């Protein structure tokens, strides 16, 4: 059975937007006060920060916003990463503003788990996407899928899909339902190939670099939070019953210093490569292959260093002995879950290695 897409105009009130970094701090405070992550991001204007109807935001600012959100609340950071899939609309043609505009909540799935086929009357999307963060409140979904040999994105309203129950993964702390498309007809203008330059000449990083940049910031923020929590609260009880702060142990001090130095250096490298790439023209079509490879390398390196720091403090503080919901246990879950994103996965590493040694990088990962 084929389900036709019905679109709904989404109107929005023009409003003054705060500085993105200040907005990130406000969103963190709201979540700590009991507001849902999606609502906090919408209220502060961060939910659609990467969308084409918003003023352009520099990669440096996006990195800092992701880091601020990850430091404040890792789950909030992950919702922010998913919502920035709205950036794919920079590659949509023609302009989608007639049907979808400011105020829309767009969220994206991670893996290309669907297939687009032509049934003679148009493109039909079939597939199943696990744990789509934000799908319970989103208006539109950006669903990666395969159209023949190409990796494309289908822009689908949530009214056209079937939502299942969230997969109760051991590492998941968010309401992230399964999304199922049972033969959804997708109009040609809602099928986006983001492998080339943006359709409207936007000065934006290539889509995978853009999304990975934000996710790298979130990973660094989670690591900062985990290390700070460990330094403040971790205690060790000796056999004699004496209680000592773990950070006072010389061997642990040395291990932690190495870990902190690593992810701080990774952050500096990421800053340097971002400045180098955007000092000229950051338009996606104008970036050199070497520049894309260097930035992707810095992003992957930053995420790996951040994850290593979180794993270190989590294990030293007791690891699996920590109760569920302990700040370090939450940081570990959020960091591990973020590390499973395909942009940090084996395919991304293979693409990077191939490009590093002379191969041509695909637009799907670089």
From TrEMBL:
User: Is Oxidoreductase among the key words of this record?
Assistant: yes
Q: Where is this region: Disordered?
A: 1-21, 98-118
Q: What domain of life is recorded for the organism?
A: Bacteria
Which residue intervals are annotated with compositional bias (Basic and acidic residues) in the record? 12-21
Any GO CC annotation of this UniProt entry: cytoplasm
Q: Which Pfam families match?
A: Acyl-CoA_dh_2
User: Quick check: keyword Oxidoreductase in the entry?
Assistant: yes
Q: Which InterPro entries match?
A: Acyl-CoA_dehydrogenase, Acyl-CoA_DH_C, AcylCo_DH-like_C, AcylCoA_DH/oxidase_NM_dom_sf
Q: Which residues form the Acyl-CoA dehydrogenase C-terminal domain?
A: 215-343
Q: Name one GO molecular function term.
A: acyl-CoA dehydrogenase activity
Which keywords does UniProt give here?
A: Oxidoreductase
Record's compositionally biased regions (Polar residues): 1-10
The biological process GO terms on file are: fatty acid beta-oxidation using acyl-CoA dehydrogenase
What is the protein name stated in its UniProt record?
A: Acyl-CoA dehydrogenase
């Amino acid at each position: 059975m084929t389900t036709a897409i019905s679109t709904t105009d989404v109107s929005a009130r023009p409003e003054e937007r705060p500085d993105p970094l200040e907005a990130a701090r406000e969103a963190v405070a709201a979540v700590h006060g009991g507001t849902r992550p999606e609502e906090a991001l919408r209220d502060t204007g961060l939910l659609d920060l990467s969308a084409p109807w918003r003023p352009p935001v520099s990669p440096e600012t996006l990195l800092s916003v992701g880091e601020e959100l990850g430091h404040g609340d890792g789950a909030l950071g992950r919702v922010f990463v998913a919502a920035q899939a709205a950036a794919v609309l920079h590659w949509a043609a023609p302009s989608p503003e007639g049907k979808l505009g400011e105020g829309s909540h767009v969220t994206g799935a991670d893996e290309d788990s669907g297939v687009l086929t032509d049934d003679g009357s148009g493109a039909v999307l079939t597939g199943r996407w696990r744990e789509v963060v934000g799908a319970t409140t989103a208006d539109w979904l950006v669903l990666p899928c395969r159209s023949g040999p190409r990796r494309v994105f289908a822009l689908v309203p949530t009214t056209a899909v079937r939502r299942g129950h969230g997969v109760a993964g051991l590492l998941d702390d968010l309401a992230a339902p399964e999304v199922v498309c049972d033969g959804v007809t997708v109009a040609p203008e809602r099928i986006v190939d983001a492998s080339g330059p943006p359709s409207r000449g936007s000065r934006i990083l290539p889509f995978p670099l853009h999304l990975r940049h934000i996710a790298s910031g979130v990973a660094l923020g989670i690591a900062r939070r985990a290390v700070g929590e460990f330094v403040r609260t971790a205690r060790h009880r000796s056999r004699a019953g004496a209680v000592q702060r773990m950070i006072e142990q010389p061997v642990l001090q040395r291990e932690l210093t190495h870990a902190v130095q690593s992810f701080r250096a990774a952050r500096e490298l990421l800053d340097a490569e971002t400045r180098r790439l955007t000092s000229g023209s950051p338009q996606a079509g104008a970036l050199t292959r070497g520049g894309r490879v260097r930035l992707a390398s810095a992003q992957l390196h930053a995420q790996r260093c951040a994850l290593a720091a979180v794993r270190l403090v989590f294990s030293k503080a007791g690891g699996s002995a920590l109760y569920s919901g302990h700040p370090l246990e939450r940081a570990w879950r959020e960091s591990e879950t973020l590390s499973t994103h395909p942009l940090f996965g084996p395919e991304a590493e293979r693409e990077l290695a191939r490009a590093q040694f002379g191969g041509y990088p695909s637009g799907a990962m670089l």
